[in-house]
Amino acid sequence: MLKEFKEFAVKGNVIDMAVGIIIGTAFGKIITSFVNDVVMPPIGLLLGKMDFTNLFLPLSDAAYASLADAKKAGAPTLNYGLFLNTVLDFLIVSFVIFLVIRQLNAVKKRLEKPAPPAEPVQKDCPFCISKIPVKAVRCPHCTSEIKA
Question: How many helices and strands, by DSSP H and E, does the chain display?
């Protein structure tokens, strides 16, 4: 098992995967910043200067002015505003990944050359209509001579 793991790690799969995870993490941070700092403020402004990060429901009887105040007090809260931001992050990342994969597939399709049609290996006997090899000079079914 150790030998198999060594082969797996050396093949480059692990390195490719690590690079992908690192780039994905950095990309996720960019998208999170984009959602929190660019997308959500105008949406909040359109909805009456609402800050989505402060949308929460306290699960206790006390009232809090902001989520930070509730967290400072140690109160249990249902943070649906943060959840909305996370869902928006996910939707944007998913859409961007979809666009990238779509473009990669289009480029891949353009670069692939269609395979030339295969040479036929059989033909029909003109006398008995049986399938015979292309190089046959006599039909094995009806014994007729086939002209080339």
Answer: 5, 4
Q: What single-letter DSSP state applies at residue 54?
A: G
Q: Write the pLDDT tens digit of every residue in 22-48.
A: 988 888 888 888 877 888 788 778 877
Q: What are phi and psi of 111, to 5 degrees?
A: -80, -25
Domains delineated in the chain: 2-112 (1.10.1200.120), 117-148 (no CATH)
For CA atoms 89, 90, 95, 100, the dihedral sign is positive
The 10s digit of each residue's pLDDT in 108-120 is: 888 888 888 888 9
Q: pTM, whole model, 2 decimals?
A: 0.54
Helix (H) / strand (E) element for 118: namely none
CA atoms of 102 and 39, how far apart (whole Å): 24
**Contact of 58 with 75, CB cutoff 8 Å:** yes
Query: Which residues have C-beta within 8 Å of that of residue 59, sequence separation ≥ 6?
Result: 75, 76, 77, 78
Q: 73 in helix, strand or coil?
A: helix
User: Do the Cβ atoms of 145 and 138 come closer than 8 Å?
Assistant: yes
